Amino acid sequence: MVAHPRRHEPCLTLHERGIPCLVWFEDAIAPYGVPTVVFDLHLLVPDIDEAARALIEKGWIDAGLLNSDYHFLMGPISQRRLHPPNYTPPNSEESSPWPPPPPSQDPPGPTTTVLLPAVDWNVPIEKLRLCSPASFVPPLDLVLDGMIDSFLDSPSDTLLRTRLTTYLSYLYGYCKALKTPAFAANLRLDHRQFHYDRLSRYTGPVPFIKEQRQIRDEIREGKRQPHLDMGLTRSEPNARVIGEPTQDELLEIDRDG
């Protein structure tokens, strides 16, 4: 389940400095059977400024603020973006020689790395200690726990919500492990009803996010317990399986990466 080591070079650098980290977004779901490509490397860390300093000391270049109005991480989202050493800006003469050289046979090297505060993505700092030089991929239950909360708390009508919807659709559409009966026990209690409903329920015009946020909060308050028999029936008009990604959702991750 480990990506090529060169892509994870910043992870190794941070690990050597005693800074734990785990990969997130595409790099966190691809090892679990999700057929996605990867883009920038997103890392969850305890402190993005401390991690950025550690990488800069090793030659990484501060990439500054995100300059795209159409990126899913636009807005008030804490992040530090760094380019790898010897980075060549796109569209420069060095990056676009003519005639173009033949495709390289070498594995791709480190890419632009985005540091994110783990707590902002609902991953406890102590869980980052799960990382090791052998793998910086978080366990599947940690991925799902973090993404469920991020999805339920994401602002409406944003690219962030669209992207998180796509990640969850991919996981529930392709990851066999989370469909096993025993998997729910690995999740936090307040996320299990979401999990059950994603696996078994059909929805029509019901405001799913609002409903699931209320269910999660009531479980946290001790007002209810998750159970399996809350699904709607297939006879409801315009129903569709929540766990099955639409074609648009499956393409979204590749369009706005």
From TrEMBL:
<protein>
    <submittedName>
        <fullName>Uncharacterized protein</fullName>
    </submittedName>
</protein>
<feature type="region of interest" description="Disordered">
    <location>
        <begin position="227"/>
        <end position="257"/>
    </location>
</feature>
<feature type="compositionally biased region" description="Pro residues">
    <location>
        <begin position="97"/>
        <end position="110"/>
    </location>
</feature>
<feature type="region of interest" description="Disordered">
    <location>
        <begin position="83"/>
        <end position="113"/>
    </location>
</feature>
